[in-house]
Amino acid sequence: MxxxxxxxxxxxxAIICPSVYASPHFRAEITGFPIIxxxxxxANVNLTYxxxxxxxxxxxxxxxxxxxxxSPDVKIPITNLYVLCDGEQxxxxxxxxxxxxxxxxxxxxxxxxxxxxKLENIGELPAGTYTIPLKFLDKTGLTxxxxxxxxxxxxxxxxxxxxxxxxxxxxxxxxxxIFNKQSFxxxxxxxxLNITSNTNxxxxxxxxxxxxxxxxxxxxxxxxxxxxxxxxQNNTKLLPNQRYLLASGKPTLEGIDAGNKIPAYITLxxxxxxxxxxxxxxxxxxxxxxxxxxxxx
Length: 297
What we know:
The chain is mainly β.
């Protein structure tokens, strides 16, 4: 009897005072962490709503872009965002409400619905926190409707990698070289480093493993790709247990669409010089280990 009276009061209030308003009877919450893959991002959303009649659930975006908070110029069109509900997919826009679910008739039930938000057709994204405010609407079978908001947010972590070709430079000293204190003996194989980064980056050379005290080693950058902003252009002497800034550059991404990678690389030439002493330098192969460190600028 009490439930009947309460329902009747709600019905009368809805008929007399039709409106749309935020209410504790309608909530949208993201559960768990978004799943980030190479081409998509998916988040699970739980909706709790008051069902009075045939409830119809709608969604709409508050903006036409998903924004990278750290780099506001990086924007993902809202047309890449969808609601997945009961095996069907619905595109979200900021131009109007998108209906994605109709519930069966129940006059006083508090119901729940699990849906997914899915961002599709993206490539590798620049690092940062991305956000878009969303609005959900519960249009009941009566004239009283409920609205709630949800901030869809996900984080793209820093991503850096180096792939090296001929990673250890090979320098061969012949009999003619061992007492030569004037010329540089260059490596027989230049070292190429391919760089991948979703942020502005710096590339360092570490000489922590350099321990040949009877000679001098040098490096020089011979070639760089267009997205390398600055790099060491001089023939630079290497000392043990030091870090040398080789180059810095922009993210190896172009836009936010799939297939947006652009190459970044540098080519290094190493050389050897006999020290200015009368010590005998043994002929043969010099193959020192160098460490390369890629980090966010």
